[in-house]
Amino acid sequence: xxxxxxxxxxxxxxxxxxxxxxxxxxxxxxxxxxxxxxxxxxxxxxxxxxxxxxxxxxxxxxxxxxxxxxxxxxxxxxxxxxxxxxxxxxxxxxxxxxxxxxxxxxxxxxxxxxxxxxxxxxxxxxxxxxxxxxxxxxxxxxxxxxxxxxxxxxxxxxxxxxxxxxxxxxxxxxxxxxxxxxxxxxxxxxxxxxxxxxxxxxxxxxxxxxxxxxxxxxxxxxxxxxxxxxxxxxxxxxxxxxxxxxxxxxxxxxxxxxxxxxxxxxxxxxxxxxxxxxxxxxxxxxxxxxxxxxxxxxxxxxxxxxxxxxxxxxxxxxxxxxxxxxxxxxxxxxxxxxxxxxxxxxxxxxxxxxxxxxxxxxxxxxxxxxxxxxxxxxxxxxxxxxxxxxxxxxxxxxxxxxxxxxxxxxxxxxxxxxxxxxxxxxxxxxxxxxxx
Length: 436
Prior knowledge:
3 domains, 3-stranded antiparallel beta sheet, 12 helices
């Protein structure tokens, strides 16, 4: 076992970096991987003085050399996300990591520390390795070792129990405050997810009234990873249980935090959990007015909504403004059908149930699935919710209001979420008049 004061070698630092870069926590974050690699490599090469906000913006994020640090906070935002992902990696994926990487706030120079997570759980009985004798020390010393190990194991079991029942170290208090009733493990939570109508394309679909011949163009994009006999025809049939990958990732993020609060949840498609099932209980709906009847109903009296423009582009609209002047943000295309800038909309609605107990409904919408994922991750980020609370405090509010909406901007690579940032919010004091 390495001592606490043993210097950490360059090889150990590189191993720690490789473990993070190859982790599941960073699998969808190409930009964060690039940022962490740059930070660590510059430090390992002996040039930590290069790790400035300006240099990172130019070298990693591709900013022009004449850009303004005052007007562009992207590096600081990415650093927040990087610290958050590192915390997630070491708390859930690799709590046993021997060497950990930390990026202290206020700078970008990495710090490496040793960690001994298994020291407190060292077993009482050590089986001797084959071919090596087990030394026998004086009996009092062995007795002392047993007593100390017993105490250590008792403490370790307490920590393990705390991890199992409350999480380790447990969700920050700011998240419990932001989630409110949704974090209460005593109340059941329903997660409803809207599904898309889509066409399944494959060979060997049995003949039925809704089987269609696929266009010839489908053969060129069906893909080598899908088995298909040469010249076999392709068919299509409609299905209504499609959940995009990014939205599934958003559900996982929400479900993991709910579990960390110590509560359970039920996950159902909207076809089995319509708007009537969401009212009067703690619930989460992932859906937009473009694919969800429940979202259409719940957002009808809220200021912000996501809808299509006249030329079939996704946009965020403000219903308080007159038509033609109410578009706030427009998804930005890259020249392909997949936009590179999407938007997520999160809506909090708090109402009492028939008994007077406060219940909360969370609606997460997006101009694309990555927008939904971005809004979900934002709501599950302690740093981002602290920032939201500060915005409410600056507006004279004490804590999180019972009803509000916020919009996040998401950058994507193809269908993958790369980064997200806050753009605006509104506190809902009085619902808009019911739309006809």
